[in-house]
Write a structure and sequence with these properties.
single chain; 187 residues; alpha+beta; Alpha-Beta Plaits; 2 domains; 4-stranded antiparallel beta sheet; 4 strands; 62% helix; elongated; disordered C terminus
Length: 187
Amino acid sequence: MEFLSEFYQNNAFWFLPIMIFVARVADVTIGTLRIVFVSRGLKVLASTTAFFEVLIWLLAMAQIMQNLDSVFNVLAYAGGFATGNYLGLLLEERIAMGYLHMSIYMRKNPQILVKHLRKANFGVTTMNAKGTQGGVRIIITIIKRKNLPIATVILRKYAPEAFVTIDDVRTVAGGVFPHLRSQQVRK
């Protein structure tokens, strides 16, 4: 223990700001994920991440409050916060949890688009509607977030002129999803 104490005293100038930075990156990244878990109704994951988020934050704050006289500590705290937000959002994109509600509005016949969406195993519902400029076809699909790039490629190729809205979905029950359909085919 004496070695660690001596090491810290000899290297406090650079060691403490780095530790504060790393702690802030960790707690803010975890906090970003916690918010996603809360919005998806994942109570256990949200509670677990909240515990670690606050634990790390308290440790970082204890150090920053004891060492406010160093501008490097304050900059490390702010830099860690900004970096943690960025990394948290990147990580959340990679995890791609949950579902999306995609509404596609087209004036022309959507048969080709619908055919290719269904070929990619997306469940699709179509309906006629009346828009400001006349008749439109609405195509609705609920997709897993991780499948958004596939749906986007199909949309750009077969309906580049379509008006599209995408919203988060909290829960789903039933329906047609690529993983479900592939399991049904195997049975």
